[in-house]
Amino acid sequence: NAGVMQNPRHLVRRRGQEARLRCSPMKGHSHVYWYRQLPEEGLKFMVYLQKENIIDESGMPKERFSAEFPKEGPSILRIQQVVRGDSAAYFCASSGLQGSAEAFFGQGTRLTVV
Amino acid sequence: SQQGEEDPQALSIQEGENATMNCSYKTSINNLQWYRQNSGRGLVHLILIRSNEREKHSGRLRVTLDTSKKSSSLLITASRAADTASYFCATDDGGSNYKLTFGKGTLLTVNP
Q1: Quick one: average pLDDT of A61-72?
Q2: Measuring CA to CA, which of A14, A31, A59, B106 is 20 to 30 A from A100?
Q3: Do residues A45 and A33 lie in contact, with contact meaning Cβ atoms separated by under 8 Å?
Q4: Which residues of B touch A (CB under 8 A)?
Q5: Mean per-residue pLDDT for A44-66?
């Protein structure tokens, strides 16, 4: 079992560009969670998705950020028109059942906006 | 203080010594988890303790939970240089079993 796979591991974008972060959950997992970690901070919940559904996006900024988890393929976190403040590590976790107790985290994508 | 707040913020010890980190939280929880993060890397799950448990062991790790004080501690015994990392506690929001709230972490440095 390959674990939760995130790519790319590092992403550099210029201000105004779009960033697409991918997360392939563990095999058999249908619940995906995205977290953001700003420098020197703990992780902050962004969004919880099940296949084709957004369950809870209470932690997502209202503008420029979107997430999807299609029936086929990885979950995508999309950030449009990136700004320097978007620079952070973005972590994805997945679980087979709903619940944080069952979640496994990926290695993260480190986004740098220049 | 924040939900899932660790102290101290930084801890420096010698190899072989024990390291104790504390975590406080505010709301009711279903469980509390401890994670390790090496510099610039992903999260490694260490241990989960449920709200009806008071103590749990895993190898050199010992976790306690005091729900009356809304606090937890992580003890690493006989520390090694490889234990150098940031340690985070994460609590679920008692009303949501999927949303984890992390503290800012304790940076542990184990000197050889």
Answers
A1: 95
A2: B106
A3: yes
A4: 4, 30-31, 33, 35, 40-43, 45, 48, 88, 90, 92, 96-105
A5: 95
